[in-house]
Amino acid sequence: MRQTSAVAVLTGSGVSAESGIPTFRGGGDSLWKRYDPRELATPEAFSRDPRLVWEWYLWRRSLVVGAEPNPAHLALAEMEGFFSSFTLITQNVDGLHERAGSRNVLELHGNILRSRCTAEGEISEPRRQEVPPRCRRCGDLLRPDVVWFGEMLPEGPVRAAFEASSSCGVFFSVGTSSLVYPAAALPEEARASGAILVEINPEETPLTRRADFSFRESASVVLPELVKRLRAQGDY
Ligand code: BJW
User: Fold this and answer.
1) Cβ atoms within 10 A of the Cβ of 115, count?
2) Separation of 94 CA from ligand 1 center, angstroms?
3) What's the CA gap between 214 and 165, in Å, rounded?
4) What is the pLDDT of residues 101-160, one digit of tens each?
5) Measuring from atom 10 of ligand 1, which residue has the nearest CA?
6) CB 127 within 8 A of CB 136
7) pLDDT higher for 117 or 232?
8) How far is the CA of 89 from the centre of ligand 1 (A)?
9) How many angstroms is it from 158 CA to the middle of ligand 1?
10) Angle (deg, nearest 10), helices 71-80 and 219-232
11) Mind listing the pLDDT tens digit for each residue in 124-139?
12) For every residue of the chain, which 3-state class applies, written as one string?
């Protein structure tokens, strides 16, 4: 890391697990455990039962609003100051990286706290307290401003994410199962461009064998330790 000025980090839901936000593929112990998140985060589920999907998102919003950034988010925010180029690419929709102080954040899958009108496509507010909520301007259904399976990711952030991945010296994949594309293609992009690949995840993933370094530990343990060691080297 001392030999590079450009670092890119891809994060997934595991980074927020210790802030009390459930991961997607980890099961869980909630009211919603009988629902598979992979089946609710789809346009088909929303067309079939917008009320059910909204209730799930309102529950998740309440967790996000009550959550605090954990030591992994805080360490990443501090690391940003160590490198002249530092890009934090996140699949998370919880905004905790920004709340921890990270500035150069690319949100690939949107933000759960925003809503957008299904008719106009614009960010909007609900006209009154109702589930599912309706657009204050046109009265049509609102939806969470997130990216569901089968939908396109926002073009600007995706382009910037591929650029950062292909031009960094070290690429971190943190707290993601590396199953969902196109995000899962970013580490390969980085590797093909000569970057060192580091994975931080307590579980093995499809990326583990491709990584130069694999830390089978929680992000909230590894990242603060890494920041501590970088700081101790005195160059930062
Ligand atoms: C810890 C930890 C701790 C726990 N510390 N770690 C190419 C190949 C194959 C398929 C496709 C492809 N291109 C497109 C597809 C289809 C699809 C896809 O990828 N499917 C795969 C599942 C096979 N992709 C899409 O549809 C995407 N759109 C697209 O590509 O558009 C073009 C297109 C359109 C039509 C047809 C074809 C192409 C859109 C993907 C949108 C994903 N949306 C969601 C929901 C977001 C909204 C919401 O939050 O509700 O995004 S799904 C869900 O998965 C969410 C996440 O961001 C994403 C990734 O999950 P993540 O973060 O990795 O979570 P988990 O739970 O899987 O893993 C957590 C990890 O943390 C685990 O490994 C734990 O071990 C670890 N962990 N504690 C560190 N303390």
Assistant:
1) 24
2) 15
3) 18
4) 999 999 999 999 999 999 999 999 999 999 999 999 999 999 999 999 999 999 999 999
5) 181
6) yes
7) 117
8) 13
9) 14
10) 30
11) 999 999 999 999 999 9
12) CCCCCEEEEEECCHHHHCCCCCCCCCCCCCCCCCCCHHHHCCHHHHHHCHHHHHHHHHHHHHHHHHCCCCHHHHHHHHHHCCCCEEEEEECCCCCHHHHHCCCCEEECCEEEEEEEECCCCCEECECCCCCCCEECCCCCEEEEEECCCCCCCCHHHHHHHHHHHHCCCEEEEECCCCCCCCHHHHHHHHHHCCCEEEEECCCCCCCHHHCCEEECCCHHHHHHHHHHHHHHCCCC
Spatial neighbors of 195 by CB under 8 A, at least 6 apart, are: 8, 165, 168, 169, 170, 171
| Whether residue 203 has its Cβ less than 6 Å from ligand 1 | yes
Q: Tell me which residue has tokens 């070290």.
A: 170
Q: Tell me, using a 6 A CB cutoff, whether residue 13 lines ligand 1.
A: yes
Ligand 1, atom nearest to 177 Cα: 73
- 109 tagged catalytic: yes
Q: Is the pLDDT of residue 29 over 60?
A: no
Ligand 1: atom nearest CA of 146 is: 47
Per-residue pLDDT band at 236 (split at 50, 70, 90): low
